[in-house]
Amino acid sequence: MTISRRELLAGTAAVAAAAGMPGAASAQAKRNVLKVVPHANLQVIDPIWTTGYISRNHGYMIYDTLFALDDGLKPRPQMAESVEISSDNTKYTIRLRDGLAWHDGTAVTAEDCVASLGRWGKRDGMGQRLMAVTDKLEADGAKTIVLTLKRPYGVVLDSIGKISSNVAFMMPKRVADTPADRQIEDTTGSGPFMFNRANWKPGNLAVYEKFKAYVPRKEPVSAAAGGKIAKVDRVEWYTMDANTAMNALMAGEIDYWEQVTPDLIEVLKRAPGVKVENLDPTGNMGWARFNHMVAPTNNPLVRRAIMKAISQEEVLKTAIGNPEYYKVCKSIYPCGTPLESSSGFFDYNQAEARTLLQQSGYKGEEFVILQPTDHPVLNPFSQVIAEKLRAIGINVKLQAMDWSTVLQRRASKETTDKGGWNMFCTWWIGGDTVNPLTGVGFGATGERGWFGWAQDDEAVKLQDAYANAANADEAKKIAHAFQARLYEIGHYVNLGQFFVPVGYRDNVKGMIRSPVQFFWNMEA
User: Fold this and answer.
1) How many other β-carbons are positioned within 10 Å of the β-carbon of residue 509?
2) How far is the C-alpha of 366 from the C-alpha of 45, rounded, in Å?
3) Which secondary-structure segment (H or E) carries 465?
4) Which residue range(s) make up the domain with 438?
5) What pTM does this model have?
6) Number of domains, the chain
């Protein structure tokens, strides 16, 4: 379900009328409103229950975090006023800053935060690792959180302050006490905006109202950190198809389009009153994910042959087109970030790929690629890969479907003749892949892990070693060894780095450069 331009224009007045304001339509026109086309439809409002980026973005609108990553990807206090770390690095005493309040007017307490961390720690990968080394997590009075570890752990604040899914958003205790495997229904937060649930129309519209009692930090904004100042009264998210979004932006009916599709970038660049800009310095990391449980991709030699057979340059050139918006990147961590590495990378070589495939014992088994035909980037990814794999002798079957069906099918552990799969393409934002622990897909714990279910004890040991590294130099060496190990076992195919620009009217100001889209500090 998507909204048309006519529905957009009518919808703004309808939202105001539903709010019961006198002269609602004219009052709405005078209000300071930012109209946005987000990258996806908001269906799930629990950003702890899902890793979906649209739910994460929704979370940032209405919730706050104890710590947040700045534009150098370093954790800084956010709801926290201060943190005191014991000399043996096993006790973290976090004091909340003054002025924190929930949207219902009650004060944020340490008990709320303890419950929130506990629920997050049951769902998120980094959270699970942190909780595994936690001895006690408790409130000491109304404003102090005490985290006591069983042993020193090097990424405590990085975990609590991680920038992307799952983010450790703070919620009232009554909400955070919801079992981690059940979605929340109460959207009370303490962030700069409040969710107007009465006007939420999944597939069409989501509305956020300024929380006037929010007290921002005094520091300048820096990615997810610093002062979150709501400079508009309302933010409205409208779900549209790409062509409708383009036309609405050019007509001034929307202010901001979060992800301009590659084929429309040049059109918008020429449009009067419109700007196109990349705001994400880390970009996105393309993946072709193997299923490690079914033939023939349960064979590491087959996986390595496929890695040799795929050219990042050709995949990116076909899907993205303009080299201004993509980069061949041998690193599993975004190029340009501190852990960038070329360790273990498989250079493109079709002849060597054929040889490896012959050595693997491959007998022509069907190779199923899930192909999201409705996705402007992942569809061409899938098509180029299919062509390259057929060229080395793999019996490829592209199974066409929409992206929402891919998200369901990828959960299947059946063989390919019973609805299973061998590969699907996806991507992670750079903020989700900056180190061995942030990437959910980096895990190698088998059936307990992410779709594809890679299993490798050595990779898990290297992740543990990274978490406990004595210093930055040691951590970097371990991160590079971890990358080499993922390439060695054929964990997934690295499809390179690409950037998706935003489109906006030239009167919009205050955009934040970050791997994640934020709407505080923005105004139109």
Assistant:
1) 11
2) 39
3) helix 457-467
4) 284-498
5) 0.88
6) 2
CATH number of the domain encompassing residue 328: 3.10.105.10
**Is position 488 within any domain?**
yes
CATH number of residue 82's parent domain: 3.90.76.10
In 3-state terms, the chain is what percent helix, strand and coil (to 5)? 35, 20, 45
* Three-state SS letters, 113-173: HHHHHHHHHHHCHHHHHHHHCEEEEEECCCCEEEEEECCCCCCHHHHHCCCCCCCCEECCH
Name the H helices within 177-275: 242-250, 265-269
Exposed / middle / buried, residue 230 (Cβ in 10 Å: 0-12, 13-18, 19+) = buried
Are 511 and 500 in contact by the 8 Å Cβ rule? The answer is no
C-beta separation of 413 from 453 below 8 A? yes
| Span 377-402, pLDDT tens digits | 999 999 999 999 999 999 999 999 99
C-alpha 470/C-alpha 261 separation (Å) is 43
Return the minimum-mean-pLDDT range out of 39-43, 146-150, 310-314, 358-362: 39-43
Same domain, 290 and 171: no
pLDDT tens, residue by residue, 79-131: 999 999 999 999 999 999 999 999 999 999 999 999 999 999 999 989 999 99
The answer to whether residues 163 and 303 belong to one domain is no
pLDDT of residue 195: 98
Please name the residue that has the structure tokens 């942030």: 438
* pLDDT, mean of residues 6-15: 47
Distances (CA, A) of 275 to 74, 130, 269, 378, 504: 30, 42, 6, 25, 5
Mean pLDDT, rounded, of the chain: 93
Q: Specify whether the CB–CB gap between 423 and 370 falls below 8 A.
A: yes
Residues with Cβ within 8 Å of residue 78, at least 6 apart in sequence? 64, 65, 66, 67, 68, 161, 217, 224, 225
Boundary of a domain, candidates 158, 176, 194: 176
Question: Where is the domain boundary, 142, 176, 210?
Answer: 176
Q: What would the two tokens of residue 42 be?
A: 């908001």
* Measured distance CA(25)–CA(492) in Å, rounded: 52
Alpha helices in 239-368 (DSSP H): 242-250, 265-269, 300-309, 312-319, 350-360
**Percent of the chain whose predicted confidence (pLDDT) is above 90:** 89
User: 148 is written with which tokens?
Assistant: 């006591």
- 239 assigned to some structural domain: no
CA distances, 87 to each of 91, 92, 196 (Å)? 8, 10, 46
Banded model confidence at residue 37, pLDDT cuts 50, 70, 90 = very high
For the four alpha carbons of 276, 38, 127 and 521, in that order, the dihedral sign comes to: positive
Helix (H, G, I), strand (E, B) or coil at 281: coil
Q: Is the backbone peptide bond immediately before 296 cis, with ω within 30 degrees of 0?
A: yes
Question: Quick check: 13 pLDDT over 50?
Answer: no
